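note to self: dont lose this again. the chain is below, predicted strucutre after it. 243 aa total, dont forget to put it in the shared folder this time
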Amino acid sequence: MKRVLIISDNPTLVAGFREIIAQPEYSSYKFDYRCSKGSEENLSKAVGEPVSSIKVKTDWQELVVNYNLIISLHCKQLFPAELVQAVHCVNVHPGLNPYNRGWFPQVFSILNGLPTGATIHEIDEELDHGNIIAQQEVENQVWDTSIDIYNRVLHTELELLKEHLPKILVREYETFEPSEEGNLNLKKDFDELCELDLAKSQSIGDTIDLLRALTHGEYQNAYFTDPKTGKKVYVSIRLESKE
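---
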């Protein structure tokens, strides 16, 4: 039986993936699951059995010995060069490479107007950078908040997996190189967006875009500091489109 490792920190995506592989065509494969530290409880619920964490940067040798294919489903860790050079590694990324590679692509697509979507690509030594196996753009409407777009992307990722997973498992697929290097956003870039400058002058449109980019369900992202009390005040936005 062929063993495939899934490394993920997203229980929703893992639950959808497990529905895909419940089909008889995947019965000859054994799918194992690992996650980053802190994601164990949620991933275990999605898988239905205990999932242990792994630090890919230091424990990559264990993976080289045991697997010929590793699939990242929104894993927060950067795979080291030693691993991607020794094992076939594939990433499912919530962005339309090469645009807004890195953290929270939908957030930055709202702000910079670049397209967003879902991409399945081979992993190389750079972040969200390898040759593309499949991708699809998703809509980004002016009334969408971050979570609206993200949920649309999740659905698209699962549709792409459903279509392309059989060929990925046997490595019988074609790839193409990204059209350009694109742009890269890191976690620190997102963190800098979250602190609102009350003295900054900008258009109402830009303000709405910033707030919808930082509105993601129950997450507390955008905030300003009350100058009188020093307390953080969190801000989100609700947008409605009517016919």
